[in-house]
Amino acid sequence: MIKGGNAFVPTVPLRIAVRGGVDVTALLLTEAGRVRGDGDIVFHGAPVHPSGAVRLLGDENGTGWLETGLTAVEADIARVLVVGSTESGAMRDAHGLSVEAFAPDGTSVARYDVTEAGGETAMVLAELYRRAGGWKFRAVGQGYVNGLAGLATDHGVDVSEEASVPPHAPVQGPAPVPVQAPAFAPPPAFAPPPAFAPPPAPESSVPEPNVPQGNVPWTFGAVFEPYKQTGRDNEVITVDGLPPGPVIVDLSIRGDGYTGLWLLTRFNKEGDNLVNSTEEDFQGRVLTVIPENGRLRLKLSAEGPWQLQVLPLAAATLLTEDQVESRGPDVLLHTGGVADLALHYKGDDNLIVHLYELAGHDDPTTLPTYDNVVNEIGRRRETVPLPEGPLVVQMEMADGPWRARLKGVQPHSAPQNAGGDLAKVTDIRRGQGKTWWGRR
Fold first, then answer.
1. Using CA atoms, how far apart are residues 235 and 302, in angstroms rounded to an integer?
2. Residue ranges of the chain with per-residue pLDDT less than 50
3. How far apart are CA 341 and CA 382, in angstroms?
4. Topology at the third CATH level for domain 316-415
5. Which fold has domain 223-311?
6. Is the peptide bond prior to 390 cis by the omega test (within 30 degrees of 0)?
7. Burial 354-373 (b: 16+ CB within 10 A, else e)
8. Where in the chain is the domain with CATH 2.60.60.30?
9. 156-170 per-position pLDDT tens digit
């Protein structure tokens, strides 16, 4: 990877190797690019973040190691910086300076060889940042000639001698901008302006889940940059370069005619029917699977302007004991323990609900066989017993408004291990009582 390059990494506990004999630090930053306090700085004097999600493992033969449990990073942390620094000399004197991320099985998932180091004594080597419901690794290579003090000041740390800030207390200086982590929710509804012209398509993103208490993080399926297309009336839509596996197709149409959406086979013929609706101003989310070649072909029958998005499965709405209100087909996720799903359907046509249990299903490119749990016509109140998550709840057909919420949620039996079970490299050096930024 070259400077400025970026790539998705799996949302699993990662081990980060920093080579070149430099000292290693991690900074956990909010969306505003600032730490919340000293507790968000992981270094030899404070080797474990209070959340347990980031920890300094130590060093071995000139390589420093960090462990990052990405699924356990707090919701208001948007970026994790990987920093290298020297106590004597400059970064250009570090032989073989590089940063590399490894999955739990030892597979390298990202690497950056630093070739641009100069007279700096501290450098942001790389960062892990939230994107499209997952995490990306970026090769940064930004140096600071004024060392760790300059880097600290840039990220909201008061480096004055008298400054003494307890972990997670607000730092002095300008206060960080509070950022509310978005919960799992559908993107804003498509709302064409007058004359039914589709609106300009804003940059789409998949929200990072704000996992409620008792739920486990959602890790099934690939993450990718959402795809968006707008148009009018009938169309054949082709999306290339998607990772194989289950995805969500989000469709909104302004019009009162028939709406149909079909997968196209490799023979360019209609395959599975995803949408079959006469609802006015149709809006809904449907579930499909990207084939191994990464190419999705869809045939759309519509009257009026439309917007279509292809989203990772992680973008689905997370079920909780809070009520979800929507209309049309949808895709929901359950990650808690045994629970009951209460449904109130106000439509006049079919209500069809499927469950996909993912426990023990290890192939992220496919979905297991579903269980049909509801198949009724007209207004209904249903209570569906749910097994322990993770599972997908597919509202395959629901022409009309509906409400859903969980009842009687039991604790999940999976261990809540924030940092994974990766082995230590070496014992961590004891802190010497010095502040992190007080070093050279």
1. 8
2. 161-210, 415-434, 439-440
3. 8
4. Jelly Rolls (2.60.120)
5. Jelly Rolls (2.60.120)
6. yes
7. bbbbbeeeeebeebeebeeb
8. 6-170+422-438
9. 887 654 333 333 333
Residue 105, C-beta contacts closer than 8 angstroms, at least 6 positions apart: none
Take residue 24 and report the two structure tokens written for it: 């290693």
**What is the distance between the alpha carbons of residues 411 and 391, in angstroms, rounded to a whole number?**
15
Strands laid side by side in the 305-312 sheet: 227-232, 305-312, 245-253, 283-290
Beta-carbon count within 10 A of 341 CB: 21
How far CA 410 is from CA of 151, 215, 248, 389, in Å, comes to 45, 10, 28, 11
User: In whole angstroms, what is the distance from residue 348 CA to residue 152 CA?
Assistant: 60
Query: For position 64, what pLDDT does the model report?
Result: 93
Select 6-170+422-438's CATH number: 3.50.50.60, 2.60.60.30, 3.30.390.50, 3.30.43.10.
2.60.60.30
103 token code pair: 């999955």
- Alpha-carbon gap, residue 222 to 205, rounded angstroms: 14
| Longest CA span, the chain | 75
